[in-house]
Amino acid sequence: MKPPRFEYRAPSDVEEVVGILTEVGDEGKVLAGGQSLVPSMNFRLARPGLLVDINGVKALDYIQRSGDRILIGTLTRHSCLENAAAVPGPLGRLLATAAHHVGHMPIRVRGTFGGSVAHADPAAEWCMVSVLLDAEIIAVGSRGRRTIPAEDFFRTVFTTALEPYELLSEVILPVLPDSARFGFVEFSRRAGDFAIVASSVVIDVGSNGIINPRVALAGVGGTPVRARSAEAVLAGSAPSAELFRAAADAAAGDVEPMGDIHGSSEYRRHLVRVLTRRALERAASEA
Amino acid sequence: MKTPVKLRVNGQAHEIFVEPRKTLADALRDDCGLTGTHLGCEHGVCGACTVLLDGDPVRACLMFAIQCQDMEIRTVEGLADGEELHPMQRAFWEKHGLQCGFCTPGFLMLAVGALERKPDMDEEELKEMLSSNLCRCTGYQNILAAVRAAQAEMQ
Ligand SMILES: Cc1cc2nc3c(=O)[nH]c(=O)nc-3n(C[C@H](O)[C@H](O)[C@H](O)COP(=O)(O)OP(=O)(O)OC[C@H]3O[C@@H](n4cnc5c(N)ncnc54)[C@H](O)[C@@H]3O)c2cc1C
Ligand code: FES
Ligand code: FES
What we know:
The complex is a heterodimer of chains A (287) and B (155).
Chain A: E1 7-9, H1 14-24, E2 28-31, H2 37-42, E3 50-53, E4 63-66, E5 69-73, H3 78-81, H4 89-100, H5 105-110, H6 113-119, H7 125-132, E6 136-141, E7 144-149, H8 150-153, E8 154-156, E9 159-160, E10 167-174, E11 180-187, E12 197-206, E13 209-218, E14 225-226, H9 228-234, H10 241-254, H11 265-285
Parallel strand pairs in A: 1-3, 2-3
Antiparallel strand pairs in A: 4-5, 5-10, 6-7, 6-10, 8-9, 11-12, 12-13, 13-14
Helix pairs in contact in A: 9-10, 10-11
Chain B: E1 3-9, E2 12-18, H1 24-31, E3 50-53, E4 56-59, E5 72-74, H2 87-94, H3 104-117, H4 123-130, H5 141-154
Parallel strand pairs in B: 1-5
Antiparallel strand pairs in B: 1-2, 3-4, 3-5
Helix pairs in contact in B: 2-5, 3-5
Bound molecules: flavin-adenine dinucleotide and FE2/S2 (inorganic) cluster (2 copies).
């Protein structure tokens, strides 16, 4: 179908964006890559009265390093992160692998990192990665900027802590040490589809076993989640096939997936177990 | 409210007068008279509407015409050089890369855009790239064969 009528503004700096959002309140919506918003407008599920197109705000398109953190400007396209060299070390490889799973090439050249996080699809790769790495999400409003931890940011399906008058300006990720290893596995029916379930892990193996294990899952509820009991199983133990199986079982116990036409609750739980084991095996074998 | 919008399509300027909600695909078809760009799903899934925007393949049903001012737009009408088909068009013909042809403009623009960006894509990359668009007729094998043949010629 065709989208309903709206007014269109294309400001060129952040202050102006925030000014317009504050002025129009609930009627306004940010237009980033448009790869989620425009389909829902074409379906008439979304009917914003005014679109604030941020594609001309060049100051929101950057990847920067600041000490041990990587700052990702909201307008960073998915395709920029497909290049593992865009971000140093294992984090760059993790982001490149995740980026490759986001839709298809024409979606990735338009869609943005911040747009995906703001959209908060529970199966979205960037939302899962944000939770996996304890990302900090920066929101800018007329009263200034605030930092929201990823786990507080995602409230439920398509719902975040962002106020209607706030712009998501940046996502901050921690640089991973060179010794860190990751695994990222997802299952979908066709290439480029949203994941039915995805699992991602980061581990670091020291002389006393695994340190700082992280396990996050997508497609298992209203938001991406950390599998805390799986992390507890891994912490301090030496990597082995048996340990990974135990951690994968724990991950399956950590979730209460909702069933839908793409998969029942039990099926998703089964996927969590299989994909988490595979993600851990991949992490262990990552060179 | 309708506003004047300037589009540059296949090297030609088009001054059109459209509402902000007019998608690039509809503007190309209705206002520029370029009906080669097809609309299948209008929500980003099928890829029939693929055009090149500053060289990148994009879904023209997910952009508004008003966003595309100052950008270089290429559509299927711009591929041939007069009577001389583009190597990709000729390869689709020779390898039977189409049956009904509805998806063809989208596949042509997708493949041309992708190969102009990365001429040496390997088999896996080509398949992954082509998975972006839907074809209800061919079963994809001949599309892949056509793209491989054109790739050799475009290099
Ligand atoms: C065929 C297809 C397949 C896809 N497959 C996947 C997939 O496998 N995985 C996946 O993760 N995604 C997928 N997507 C969605 C895609 O990744 C989108 O790009 C992404 O979800 C939204 O980013 P965007 O920049 O396009 O945002 P938009 O569509 O422009 O916006 C989405 C929402 O976020 C809000 N918003 C955007 N930016 C900001 C901001 N800076 N501040 C405040 N609010 C903001 C908008 O107002 C809107 O509500 C797919 C899309 C299509 C069409
Ligand atoms: S019509 Fe644009 S993707 Fe289907
Ligand atoms: S040839 Fe008929 S849809 Fe592709």
